[in-house]
Amino acid sequence: MKFKHINYVNWILLAIVLILGFFIRIFNLGSESLWFDEAHTFYIASSGFKEMLSIITNDVHPPFYFILVNVWIKLFGDSEFLLRLPSVIFAVLSIIFIYKLGNLIFDREVGIISSLLLSFSLFNITYSQEARTYSLLCLLVSVSYYYFYAVLNVVNRKNIFLYLISSLLLIYSHYFGVFILISQNLFFISIYLFSNKRAQLNLKQWFMYQIILLISFLPWLIVFVKQTLKVQSGFWIPEPEIGWIIHTFTIYSGSREILLIFILIFISIFLNTIYKNNFLLKNFATFKLVSSFIKKLDLRSVYWSYYLLILWLIIPIIIPFLISKISQPIYVFRYTIVSLVAFYLLMAIAIKSINNLLAKILVILIILVFSTISIVKYHITIKNPHWRDAISYIDKNASNGDLLIFNPGYKKRVNSYYSNRHDLLVYDKPLCSDHKSCKEQIVNIQKKYKNFWIILSKGPGSKRKLINNHIKNLSRYSIKRFNRIELYYFNKEKF
After folding, report:
1. How many CB atoms lie within 10 A of CB 320?
2. Which of 240, 356, 444, 451 could lock onto 331 through a cystine, CB 3.0 to 4.6 A?
3. Greater model confidence, 435 or 350
4. What is residue 478's DSSP assignment?
5. In a 3-state reduction of DSSP, which class is residue 384?
């Protein structure tokens, strides 16, 4: 009866966490305009299937997320709310799977605490409100690792199939999924080499499953190589600095205050472990004893579990960082969302290790308070440029045949989503690559077109300052400003 009561309470707690997580993410979901990346998602996913694959091959991302959104749009529609809704669903499912992972690897308490932390994670909330692949990525990583750990302990068709499917969809959703597979392989090789009590899966079986994943990715391999060469020829991602790694953990935490709390808990646990367990100091005195100690550990030992989570956390951060320093920059904070679940599982373990119940509850409440403050700030802050209002203003005031010039030029994708006008022309050439060409281009446009609009916004490749300097030398133009957008309207009759 006691076991049933505890189980019942856990399900109630999980239900409350899920409801909170859902409402935090669904709140104001469609209130903000799409930003460029989301408009780019719509541009790709709203195309016909063959055209969509053609566009993706010239992009830098794999296809699975766009295929999902393509089907979703056909079934449900393409408003801002509906485009973002799949990301909310993926995020809520991620909360379920972090609970399952915590329960599988450790216990129900770790599962509940980690699900609560993820539910209030500002990083996860942010990307659960975007029509991009990152929320799906977080889910697929969780599913892949859940069945990875499951198949190590119980080899059956269900576990193997779901591990292979989730891992394959992971690398077909984002290339950072490869770093997750690397971390899993490192863990498996470690237990094979250093533990006498090995996994139920043998080395031959494991590498056979990895070969299956590789063969399944081969149809996309040529596209991957093509996209890699495109990135190497020049991309918007800057070279990271060492401080970015620390900032990554700050982003995961939601604030510096929460990260500091986590660090203090870990230091306290570490010192307490050394003080209470003198045998560790003795056992680690020589390599021989270390080896003997490790080999006696069962796969389900907490030490192997810590090792698994640490590999999961650091490999998708350290390897991309090193690649970015040595070769082509690929380190982007949102790409590292593949490590987020491991981070919160480690945090949950640290909180669970607090022996005093009141102290444990107090720590959780403090984290929730700081998280709530960050979430409230997030929801009351205008994050995206007001493209909906800006394009609506152009639609209402533009004349037939007006020319629209977007800078940066790729922002015209947003116009494709919001504009209802098909009689307006869109300038396809790059504007203002340098000072001399900028002046010549604007003069030639003035001569050729009766009316034209210059729409300026921030972003990689923006020549906002340069264009503004040339616009100031012109006379008789009107200007309308929206959040992070400037509209300049030129009428030839006024010149």
Report:
1. 22
2. 240
3. 350
4. E
5. coil
Tens of pLDDT, residue by residue over 209-268, are: 999 999 999 999 999 999 988 887 777 888 999 999 999 999 999 988 899 988 888 887
Distance, in Å, from the CA atom of 115 to the CA atom of 126, rounded to the nearest integer, reads 17
Helix (H) or strand (E) holding 454: strand 451-457
Asked if 446 and 348 touch (Cβ cutoff 8 Å), the reply is: no
Structure tokens at 22: 């859902």
Q: What is the sign of the dihedral through the CA atoms of 401, 403, 409 and 415?
A: negative
Residue 157 CB-half CA count within 13 A: 0
> What residues contact 234, with CB distance under 8 A and at least 6 apart?
none
Q: State the amino acid at position 52 in one-letter form.
A: M
Instruction: Report the SS3 class of residue 481.
Output: strand
The string of pLDDT tens digits covering residues 1-47 is 444 455 788 889 999 999 999 999 999 999 999 999 999 999 999 99
Q: Measured in Å, how far apart are the chain's first and last C-alpha atoms?
A: 86
CA 435/CA 429 separation, integer angstroms: 16
pLDDT confidence of residue 124: 97
Asked if 151 and 190 touch (Cβ cutoff 8 Å), the reply is: no
Peptide bond into 316 cis (omega under 30): no
Looking at the domain 387-494, which fold is it? Translation Initiation Factor IF3 (3.30.110)
| pLDDT (tens digit per residue) in 171-218 | 999 999 999 999 999 999 998 888 765 567 788 999 999 999 999 999
Transcribe 327-345 into DSSP letters: SS----GGGGGGGHHHHHH
Question: What span, in angstroms and rounded, lies between the C-alpha atoms of 477 and 439?
Answer: 16
**Which one-letter amino acid corresponds to residue 134?**
Y
Q: How many helices (H) and strands (E) does the chain have?
A: 22, 5
Question: Which part of the chain is CATH 3.30.110?
Answer: 387-494
